[in-house]
Amino acid sequence: MRDSGEGLNPALALGIAAASSEGADSVTIVPADLPLALPEDIEAILETGATSEIVIVPSGDGGTNALYFRPLDLIQPRFGDSSLKAHMAAAEERGLRCSVVPLERMMLDIDTAQDAERLVELGSGELPSQTLTVLSRLRPQQAEA
Predict the structure, then answer these.
(1) How far is it, in rounded angstroms, from Cα 124 to Cα 33?
(2) Left (φ > 0), alpha (ψ -120 to 50) or beta: where does 18 sit?
(3) By CB count within 10 A, which of 24, 54, 82, 142 is most buried?
(4) Which residues pair with 71 in a beta bridge?
């Protein structure tokens, strides 16, 4: 599917319309820049969605790193600066059940060089991440003292 190149929110609206035409009754939006996210995180969003019309996973900087809502015409995605507040305001305006679910692995998104550095600093622990592997290889080696 090609979008018009007008930005993320219009592209999401196009995708949501396509999903609606295929009979979907809910949407879960997860940006691709969440290198630590696991399937269990998506399951937690969907489980919360069973009792909330809107589920928001916040980012560490006041944005939104995942958004679930049902039905599909409930709200328009408002990703961008302060999107957490914008999504919460949209829910409040319509009197909807809204859950904010801070999922730790989904709070780090890679928007800046500092975000990439934070990912490398965190290390992978037990979480395999191709993004982390690539960034670790690209990171300049620290001189030993």
Answers:
(1) 16
(2) alpha
(3) 54
(4) none
Residues 6+ apart with CB under 8 A from 131: 35, 110, 119
Q: Does position 17 have pLDDT exceeding 70, yes or no?
A: yes
pLDDT range class, residue 135, cuts 50, 70, 90? low
Across residues 88-114, what is the average pLDDT? 91
Place of tokens 């300049």: 140
Contact indicator for 72, 24 with CB cutoff of 8 Å: yes
Inform me whether the pLDDT recorded for 107 exceeds 60. yes
Distance from first CA to last CA of the chain, Å, rounded? 53
Segment 41-61, tens digit of pLDDT: 999 999 999 999 999 999 988
**Closest residue by Cα to residue 68 from 93, 43, 104, 32:** 43
User: How far apart are alpha carbons 75 and 71 in whole angstroms?
Assistant: 9
84: which 2 tokens?
């957490």
